[in-house]
Write a structure and sequence with these properties.
10 strands; 8 helices; binds adenosine-5'-triphosphate; 36% helix; ABC transporter ATP-binding protein; Rossmann fold; ATP binding; nucleotide-binding; P-loop_NTPase; alpha/beta; 6-stranded mixed beta sheet
Length: 231
């Protein structure tokens, strides 16, 4: 089974350090959650591991595949959900998913299955630009799980989700974890992190300052995360 190994990754923007020598390992079935205040470096970390931002220092390896050495092979194994919606709004929900499915040679049956998972079957003909914020988030999430990737990377996936869909999202992720999927996402929602995270990485000023894990109780982790947010 494949591991994700992030080793000493760093990033600067015009001389300003956004990420400093960050390392962690994720094993199959684990869920790594990045927490931290605004500007802590969460999106920078996600963007590097998802291959959106160029990796100049450190390495990212999934199984035997090194991101810098074999980007195509690496990217073919990940699902990625961005933090914002930039795609063509004049496609319908179904067309949007079919577009991504065609790139990855995914069947229309799988597209129907994913529409059902994200609760947008009734909206299959609705234009993406007419969806609510939460529905767009669910659609982006659906796109990221279409290929049933062994590594799923998401930036603030619960933004805009109502409480019912936050619970559903956690349930879906738990099912994916049972199948061995490695999940990595960032969030400001401490309860979500504590509920699903097997490894909760707390970041500050581009550094990993603490890692909490599922050997602690959920309430302990929420309390600790709240304390870390204040410091
Ligand atoms: N494209 C960019 N150009 C310049 N600086 C950037 C850029 N992207 C991020 N930064 C800087 O890098 C640092 C980390 O930003 P990042 O977006 O990773 O934080 P974050 O933890 O995701 O924050 P938030 O919770 O607000 O989304 C910040 O100081 C930010 O200003």
């Amino acid at each position: 089974m494949k591991q994700l190994i992030v080793d000493g990754i760093s990033k600067e923007f015009k001389g300003k350090i956004a990420l400093h020598k960050c390392s962690f390992t994720a094993t199959p079935g684990s869920c790594v959650v990045l927490c931290g205040g605004n500007g802590a470096g969460k999106s920078t970390m996600i963007n590097i591991i998802a291959g959106i931002s160029l990796l100049k220092q450190g390495s990212v390896t999934f199984g035997e595949t090194n991101l810098a050495l074999k980007p195509k092979e690496y990217l073919g194994q990940i699902g990625y959900m961005p933090d914002d919606y930039h795609a063509q709004g004049t496609l319908s929900v179904r067309e949007f998913l079919m577009f991504y499915a065609s790139i990855r040679r995914i069947s229309k049956e799988r597209v129907a299955e994913v529409m059902n998972i994200i609760g947008l079957t009734e909206q299959s003909s609705t234009l993406v630009k007419s969806l609510s914020k939460g529905m767009k988030q669910r659609l982006l999430f659906g796109q990221s799980i279409l290929s049933d990737p062994p590594l799923l990377i998401m930036d603030e996936p619960t933004n805009g989700l109502d409480p019912y869909w936050v619970d559903r999202f956690i349930e879906i992720l738990k099912n994916l974890r049972q199948n061995g999927t490695i999940i990595l996402f960032s969030t400001h929602m401490m309860d979500v992190a504590a509920e699903i995270g097997t490894d909760i990485i707390f970041m500050k000023q581009g550094k990993i300052i603490e890692v909490l894990n599922s050997s602690h109780s959920m309430q302990d982790n929420i309390t600790r995360l709240m304390q870390l947010h204040r410091c």
